[in-house]
């Protein structure tokens, strides 16, 4: 049985990833931080639809200590893949951001994913094939004003995955980033409709991405046949910015 852990599974893109992978035959750990009821609901719904697979809700706060991260990983069943779809931002000027918020963005978006990668590596490389995919951002390739720290965290994922992929390529573990542009999710719903209309007009494809536009590529990167693509960042942006 092939199993993946989806960090940030209760978010808009995370839920789409769970649906795509479940349909492709994957069993899943469905991770949340605070939305436990949502994680349980996703797990129950998928278990009813795919009874031959298992779907396990799991909670982890990315602000916990290293020792608790170690315990978390030790309690996992064997996995073939890890997808890091969690992430936060803060629309603000760097000079006006609280220092604690800067730490939090870097911790959740970059530092803890790297630490979990370190801890998950022994589990992953035991398999004939294994995969890591990080959810990056178009802003990791072209930084955004008012999201400078977020941009830095996503750029860090791109460079980390490029370097780490070279370390583990001989173990059949591939490491890639899927970097969306503007996606029709609750994260972007905070903006006025006029602002989002202006963004749409800048996108050559003429629309925001849907979550399924992103999860499609993650599903393909996790496919056993996708074994020669590693260390790459795939920008799924409709031609916007990059």
From TrEMBL:
Q: Which domain of life is it from?
A: Bacteria
One Pfam family here: adh_short
Any signal peptide, and if so, which residues?
none
InterPro entries (alphabetical): NAD(P)-bd_dom_sf, Sc_DH/Rdtase_CS, SDR, SDR_fam
Please list the GO biological process terms of this entry: monocarboxylic acid metabolic process
Cross-referenced Gene3D superfamilies: NAD(P)-binding Rossmann-like Domain
What PANTHER family does the record point to? 3-OXOACYL-(ACYL-CARRIER-PROTEIN) REDUCTASE (PTHR42879), 3-OXOACYL-[ACYL-CARRIER-PROTEIN] REDUCTASE FABG (PTHR42879:SF2)
- Similarity remark: Belongs to the short-chain dehydrogenases/reductases (SDR) family.
The name this protein goes by in its record: 3-oxoacyl-[acyl-carrier protein] reductase
Species of origin: Lactobacillus acetotolerans
């Amino acid at each position: 049985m092939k199993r993946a852990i989806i960090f940030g599974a209760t978010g808009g893109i995370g839920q789409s990833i769970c649906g795509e992978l479940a349909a492709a035959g994957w069993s899943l750990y469905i991770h949340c931080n605070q939305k436990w009821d949502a994680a349980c609901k996703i797990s129950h719904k998928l278990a009813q639809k795919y009874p031959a697979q298992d779907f396990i809700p799991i909670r982890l706060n990315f602000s916990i200590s290293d020792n608790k991260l170690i315990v978390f990983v030790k309690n996992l069943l064997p996995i073939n893949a890890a997808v890091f779809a969690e992430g936060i931002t803060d629309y603000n000027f760097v000079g006006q951001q609280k220092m604690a918020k800067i730490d939090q963005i870097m911790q959740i978006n970059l530092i803890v994913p790297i630490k979990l990668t370190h801890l998950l590596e022994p589990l992953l490389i035991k398999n004939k094939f294994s995969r890591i995919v990080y959810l990056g951002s178009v802003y990791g390739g072209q930084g955004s004003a008012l999201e400078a720290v977020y941009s830095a965290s996503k750029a860090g994922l791109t460079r980390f995955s490029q370097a780490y992929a070279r370390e583990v390529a001989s173990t059949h573990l591939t490491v890639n980033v899927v970097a969306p542009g503007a996606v029709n999710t609750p994260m972007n719903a905070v903006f006025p409709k006029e602002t989002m209309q202006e963004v749409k007009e800048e996108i050559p494809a003429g629309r925001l991405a849907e979550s399924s536009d992103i999860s499609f590529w993650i599903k393909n990167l996790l496919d056993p046949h996708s074994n020669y693509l590693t260390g790459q960042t795939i920008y799924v942006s409709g031609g916007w910015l990059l």
